[in-house]
Amino acid sequence: MNRVVVTGLGPVSSIGIGVSAFTDGLREGRSGISPIRSFDASGFPHRNAGEVPGFRPEALLRRIDPARWGRSGQFAAAAARLALADSGLDPATVAVDRAGVVVGTTSGESVVVEAVTAQQVEAGFGGMDPDLLRQVPAGRLAHAVSTELELAGESLTLATACSASNYAIGYAYDTLATGEADVMFAGGADSVCRWAHAGFFRLGALTADACSPFDRDRSGILTGEGGAILMLETLEHARHRGARIYAEVLGYGLNCDANHPVAPDRASIAACMRAAHRNASIKPEDVDYICAHGTGTPANDSVEAQAIFDVFGDRVPPVSSIKSMIGHTMGAASGFGAIAGTLAIAHGFLPPTINWANPDPALVGLDPVPNTARQASVRVVQNNGFAFGGNNAIVLIGAVE
Amino acid sequence: MTGVVITGWSTVSPAGVGRAALAAAAATVPAVATVPAAATVPVGASAGGGWPVEPLPAAPVDVTALSDEPLPTTTGHALVDFDVRAHLGRKGTSFYDRATALAVVACGDALRDAAVQVDDGNRARLGVVLGTSLGSFRSTSDYTRETLVQDKPYLVNPVLFPNTVMNCAAGQAAIRHGLRGVNATVATGPLAFLDALRYGTNAIARGYVDAMLVGAVEEFSPHRAWTTSLTGQPVPTGEAAAVFLLARADQSGWVGPRREAEVLALATAYGPGGGPAADRALTGCVTRAVRRAGIDPAEITCVFTGETGPEDTDEFAPACAALGHVPARMRVSRLFGRCDAATGGLALATFLAAPPTDAAGRLALLTARSPDGGTAVAIVRGWPDAGPADR
To answer: Is this entry keyworded Transferase (chain B) (predicted)?
Structure first.
């Protein structure tokens, strides 16, 4: 089996576009939350989200025409373009059919679906624009990346909701470990949209202004968006080209609650952590930092923390949630977590949980790295991702030994 | 060789529920031998008849009962009288959308067909992966429609919110059947079944699970029917769920005595533009798959393609070029309509449902191509004990 390493990072986020700006955002504990501009939110009681208003696809994309691809595909392609640039890889040195992409998503081209639905409301079903209908399939998220970077290998979109980036990283890791490919781009993308905003609001899971995971008074998520792509390659390939290596993907674990469509399950999440540790050949005490799913809902953070206590006992590493800064970016969320975890290892710091004011008496023993980034030596990061449908996915990332 | 075998399956299709319904439909459709157009026959290859004989297109049925909205045409390929409650009861099914219902029923029937009893001793080692284009287009579009037409944009039904997420069917299949292993959804449209086959095979080969339900689903809806019409697709809209139980051949507890087929090799690639680059992606996949399968390409007697148009040889021609001969071709969209993600699953089911022609087993190549340039192929060996005679 090949070892698999991270050599390029491509965040397109509300706290920064590109690895340098994103790293600064994490270190400063920046908030990317702003009043919603991508749709008319005036009828909603809550009107904030983690949009990426500074996203100018034409400034980042070289090959795909933004008019022909949906917003989520554009996020994915732009993030992959940034990851490639960050890696220093000369694409001409890679056999094109040995390079592929796996993109995770929750809602795919949600903005396109909303546009054709508005046309339906306006003019009936026959009024839907055929060109937009051709942009609706979710598989185009991966295809946007393949087209943008001229990759001829696998082009796969995984739609496992809010843990989808971890699924994508895991599957790309398998592809590299088993020798199917030399280079893989993996992560996720999603766009802020009306229907998710409405759905989370009606579930009682949407907060008003600031997401405050692990705080006693936390009251929900803020929806977010963006693209988060990591460039992975085999260790051998990276060393042969003299690449700068950020970290190693140690392994991952997946399981399913098979219990409730939306409520998280403590025992199942703990079982997923144990599976991930086993597959990565590490022990709980090896983990220096947990990049939490940490949505900021009372239920998620409580269940996630209890599962961490179950697995880690009295040696619980620091646990922070970058969703406090960028909101819940859905299918991109665990991709941003993986990028943050990789940066934690590479630069020796823990990203903070911002908006944190009061300890939760039910979560005694949990260190959320409140409000301010912290210098720390980080060898192993556990990146948590959970989702509707009980789709749990956890990736372990480590310093290269 | 993947070492992964298929031990049971089911489809819910316009033909009905279960393998017997599909086998009967495929057998009763009048058949004609299709001779590929001269242009599709690669130089130096001999044109062959082979097995099986491709049926004439099936007649679509009246689908107006499936939509309150006007439809672009009154007919399509759907299981119009499908009622999830008849199969699963009322409890837990009342908020299923149609795609979820089709998939959950097919998963249950595939488990039965494979004689798998799910219990606390094995449920963590059994998973499910389903293919789709975008989940339920109808559920998603209807949800966002509510935000536009209600007095307040947030007056949506929270219980229906999970139906807007593309992993709804796989998540509900896990809940209904108690499947705690790897649970995944691949959303690559026409490629999705073959991509799911690859995903599930990998999950087994890597040891994350012992067995996987692998399938794909598309529902009939006005949203898909209008998409078919407005984008000028040549065949009527169809719907289906097709699900297979895959397990490692060396896991006797899962495989039991019945082995219907072996997944020999899978390959995927990307070649946009629809021209020579796209053809190269497919020929490259076939060549890689043949090599991995360790077979003589002359042994492949049939290519199951996702092609829909009568003159369409976008998959068959490059496949023949890579194989070096012209096997028989089967286009399942002629029987089941445009089923997008479910197409590959219907192809595999049709292959396994056909009566075996000899005792040695037979090899099929399954191909898929997406409009953007995605390509996937599979090589499957059907064993002599496959087919309806086994049941």
So the answer is: yes
What CATH class has A249-398? alpha beta
Name chain A contacts of B232, Cβ cutoff 8 Å.
130
Q: What are phi and psi of B228, to 5 degrees?
A: -55, -45
Closest by CA position to A177, among listed A231, A235, A94, A90: A235
* Chain A residues in contact with B153 (beta carbon < 8 A): 43-44, 194, 198
Q: Phi first, then psi: what are they for B362, rounded to 5°?
A: -145, 155
What fold characterizes domain A4-240? Peroxisomal Thiolase; Chain A, domain 1 (3.40.47)
Segments in A179-265 forming alpha helices (H): 194-202, 235-240
Q: For residues B356 and B379, give the distance between their C-alpha atoms in angstroms, rounded to a whole number.
A: 17
Q: Model-level pTM?
A: 0.97
Please indicate whether, in this complex, the C-beta atoms of B171 and A151 are within 8 angstroms of each other.
no
Residue by residue, pLDDT tens for chain A (401 residues) are: 999 999 999 999 999 999 999 999 999 999 999 999 999 999 999 999 999 999 999 999 999 999 999 999 999 999 999 999 999 999 999 998 999 999 999 999 999 999 999 999 999 999 999 999 999 999 999 999 999 999 999 999 999 999 999 999 999 999 999 999 999 999 999 999 999 999 999 999 999 999 999 999 999 999 999 999 999 999 999 999 999 999 999 999 999 999 998 999 999 999 999 999 999 999 999 999 999 999 999 999 999 999 999 999 999 999 999 999 999 999 999 999 999 999 999 999 999 999 999 999 999 999 999 999 999 999 999 999 999 999 999 999 999 98
CATH code 3.40.47.10 region(s) in chain A = 4-240, 249-398
Partner-chain contact B182 A255, CB within 8 Å: yes
In the block, which residue shows the tokens 């009828």? A43
Please determine, for the modelled complex, whether the ipTM score is greater than 0.85.
yes
